Amino acid sequence: KIPRNVVTPFHARQIQAMKDKVLSKVLRDVWGEVRKSEKVLSEKIESLEKALTPEVRAQGHKAQGRVLFQTLCASCHQLYGQGGKLGPDLTGSGRADLGYLLENIVAPNSVVPAEYQMSILTLNDQRILSGVVSSTNDRKITLQTLTDEVTIEKSSIANTTLVADSMMPPGLLDSLSITQIRDLVAYLMYSQQVALPEETE
After folding, report:
1. Is 71 exposed, middle or buried (0-12, 13-18, 19+ CB in 10 A)?
2. How buried is 1 (Cβ within 10 angstroms: 0-12 exposed, 13-18 middle, 19+ buried)?
3. Range with the lowest mean pLDDT among 30-34, 54-58, 160-164?
4. How far apart are CA 9 and CA 108, in angstroms?
5. Which of 17, 31, 117, 126 is the most interior residue, by most CB within 10 Å?
6. Closest CA to 86 of 150, 138, 34, 30
7. What is the 3-state secondary structure (H, E, C) of 71-100?
8. How much is the pTM?
9. 130: exposed, middle or buried (C-beta count within 10 Å: 0-12, 13-18, 19+)?
């Protein structure tokens, strides 16, 4: 079995390009679904890469970027030990790479790690739960929802549906100005935590 930590999005695309069914199955098992970004999203990424030059990013207000992160991202993602656990912890991710960062924000469905695909559970009593499976054994399954962790007996589950799309919406930046995007990206790409605006006054 291929270790999860050696399969990068780049490798995933290379394997997929080979059109090898066996390798593709291994890829899906280890990494999850890997799909090409839609053309409009690819163009958006390219446009932002051109706009967010190193000089522009250097002018970014990282404290304001942290405020935007808390508003848009922290309910699902942790950064420096703060935030939700529904999505990947961003502290040790490849966020210093602008292209990688923008692809994950603008086109989140292009690479969906298997461990962060959403499961929808229909229970025997007709309740429906959705979230990410954080652990499982022969008897129980633990689901990380947006608000907390829920442990359920497998015998109480009538149906399980795995959703291939990312839980992260692709239009996350659409409501932001280019200045706000600059600030958010400057914060995300920075190598350490910064103080909130009120903490620097």
Report:
1. exposed
2. exposed
3. 30-34
4. 12
5. 31
6. 150
7. HHCCCCCEECCEECCCCCCCCCCCCCCHHH
8. 0.72
9. middle
Q: With 80 as the cut, is the pLDDT of residue 110 above it?
A: no
The two counts, helices (H) then strands (E), for the chain are 7, 9
Which residues, in sequence order, are bridge partners of residue 149? 144
Per-residue pLDDT tens over the stretch 43-70: 999 999 999 999 999 999 999 999 999 9
Output the pLDDT for position 114: 76
Residue type, 48: L
Beta pairing class for 78-79 and 82-83:
antiparallel
Token duo for residue 133: 């499976």
Q: Which two tokens stand for residue 108?
A: 């989140």
Going by C-beta distance under 8 Å and a sequence separation of 6 or more, which residues neighbour residue 179?
none
